[in-house]
Amino acid sequence: MLNMDHEDAIKMFLLLHHSLNAQPDQITYVSALSACGNLRLIQLGRSIHALMEKSSAGLDLMARNALITMYFRCSDPTSSELVFRTIKDHNLCSWNCMISGFAQNKNGVLCACSQQGNLRYGREVHGYAIKAGVQANSFISSALLDMYSKCGRLDVSIQVFNNSSEKSIAFWNSMISAFGLHGHGEKAISIFTTMTQLGIQPTKSTFIALLSACSHSGLVDEGCRHYNLMKEVFGFEPCIEHNVCMVDMLGKAGKISEACNFVQKFSSRAEPGTWGAILSSCTDHANLEIGKSVAENLFCLEPDNIGYYITLSNLYACNGMWSKAEEVRSLVYDRGLMKPTGRSLSTL
């Protein structure tokens, strides 16, 4: 439904609720909860949840499944899980709601496995998805592809991609990112070419993945070509993420002066992200002259960003200037900036 349809559904529900002659049934609750989820009206959704619990519809499985979906769409997976636990006899739809919801939320279980590189648990989730018959869901397939890629199993990511009958744009983007992450920039470009030949329109996220792949693979000429294609053929105005990818790509190739010129020419305003990428490249190539100038600029733009101080300190260290490196690190404490304590998680 369109937003206006969702709003109308909520208005009708409220009229029905205040009517003395009629009471909402499970179908009414499902429609109202769906509208709340699509409009991200979590407070109203909670109110409807409370009303539902006081009626016979509170025990209806279809209505409780709608509650799960509503909370997920409102970015409250904790409430979704609490509702799921109150269901005594889960049906296939209940499991589908949970798995799809977790896959679509950034704090979902597959995303957690990806971030931790936990292949064992990722495989278990994949197994549950197969048992529930939802592995073909585009959100889940995309999350599985991403998980296997970040856990070092590009081969399985490719299998997931090839076995999927329905490929959403997010799915194509994930495959491009996977190839890029593993340094296969040419294959990422090939996937992009195939996608566009099939008539699938790329998004801004597609070009972020593609430019990042070119950066990881050192494909400077191809990266520049696709950056121009993005603007001239597909009509996208570059955002800061695109510019950071370009600066990172030029910097990794040792073309730091070109990266500075790019920022000054194409960046409409002083963007800390792009200058930060140049500073990192200066450290990688021990370019003290440009690095010092860029760091001074960043200290003006974001004086409390501890990362810039640490990067400049590392740059001095790369050039054997240990006293200068220590001097910059001392500024971190003098200005009340503290580096967050690092933590790691080990699977036993």
Automatic annotation (TrEMBL):
Keyword entries, A-Z: Repeat
InterPro entries listed in its UniProt record: E_motif, PPR_At4g14850-like_plant, PPR_rpt, TPR-like_helical_dom_sf
Superkingdom of origin: Eukaryota
Organism: Dendrobium thyrsiflorum
Keyword Transferase in annotation: no
Intervals holding PPR repeats: 168-202
Protein name in the entry: Pentatricopeptide repeat-containing protein
PROSITE patterns recorded: PPR
Pfam families the record matches: E_motif (PF20431), PPR (PF01535), PPR_2 (PF13041)
Keyword Amino-acid biosynthesis tagged: no
